């Protein structure tokens, strides 16, 4: 069974993938800096009418809760500590494991719009392991 | 005097330039030693991430940093490395008492090894040792 990205079922499967990722458990163990939002910009041509976000409540190497929300207002209400924004095509590459998230940030393809950058850099291996857990989720794409 | 950090016109589209500007800003806001080092830096450093073909120039002087897209002017120091190695440059452990890179640190050792092997190619460092030291201090998150 595969899950449509982005969606609530995909988000639930992503949470499981994170918690089954030994790399994340190892590198994320010292993480106590709050939740991380992966924000997918709206793309009506793909049927993504509103900006969507996957908010990961991560703490000490595990994902305690993962929430799928629609609209930037919902992201603001959730008030995640870190917000990473990109368009659908870039997130698709990240989910497929074809775009390293840190490299993508250096190229300007992903943007950290909220959060303490030195902390993100200090936990570079943790951030990478977190996001790359997505490649283990059986995924259907909108395009 | 307040430190001033600016992106030159055209640099905001350069992800590495925005990241380094933000990193230096937050580091000097968080840490007095790094703030002091920032005010002592004078010089021009070009950094090129060779695997993603992204380059920038950091121009320091008088408590100011301007980050340019691409290589601008004649740099005192040029750093050529893959993006992964540039990340390690930001992870070098700084010994708080001396302000020097801590050779016991895992990331410091990685950078020293990469510099020796040429994975991190630093040109001009020998004649601009103080510039390199202070750059390391303000770029490092540790």
Model description:
The complex is a heterodimer of chains A (143) and B (142). In chain A, the strands form two sheets. A five-stranded mixed beta sheet of chain A has the order 4-3-2-5-6, with helices on both faces. Chain A has seven helices and seven strands. The mean pLDDT of chain A is 94. Chain A has helices at 8-19, 22-27, 72-78, 88-96, 101-106, 117-122, 124-132; strands at residues 3-5, 36-40, 52-59, 62-70, 82-86, 111-114, 139-141. Chain A is globular and about 40 Å long. Chain B is an alpha/beta fold and 142 residues long. Chain B has a single domain, classed as SCP2 sterol-binding domain (Nonspecific Lipid-transfer Protein, Chain A, 2-Layer Sandwich), CATH 3.30.1050.10. Helix content of chain B is 38%, strand content 24%. Chain B has a six-stranded mixed beta sheet with strand order 1-4-3-2-5-6. In chain B, a hairpin with a 4-residue loop joins strand 2 (43-49) and strand 3. Classes of the chains: A alpha/beta (143), B alpha/beta (142). The interface between A and B is medium-sized, with 18 and 23 residues.
Strand content of chain A: 25-35%
Topology, number of strands of chain B: 6
Strand content of chain B: 15-25%
The CATH architecture assignment of chain B turns out to be: 2-Layer Sandwich
For the record, give the distance between the C-alpha atoms at the N and C termini of chain A, rounded to a whole number: 18 Å
* Spatial strand order of the main sheet of chain A: 4-3-2-5-6
State the major sheet of chain B: 6 strands, mixed
Order of helices and strands of chain B: EHHEEEEHHEH
Low-confidence stretches of chain B: none
> Please, how many helices of chain B?
5
For this structure, what is the CATH homologous superfamily of chain A?
SCP2 sterol-binding domain
How widely separated are the two ends of chain B? 25 Å
Quickly count the domains of chain B: 1
Mean pLDDT figure of chain A: 94
Shape of chain B: globular
Count every helix of chain A, treating DSSP H or I runs of 4 or more residues as helices: 7
Radius of gyration of chain B (Å): 14 Å
Please identify the top-level CATH class of chain B.
Answer: Alpha Beta
Biggest interface goes to:
A-B, 18 and 23 residues
Helix content of chain B: 25-40%
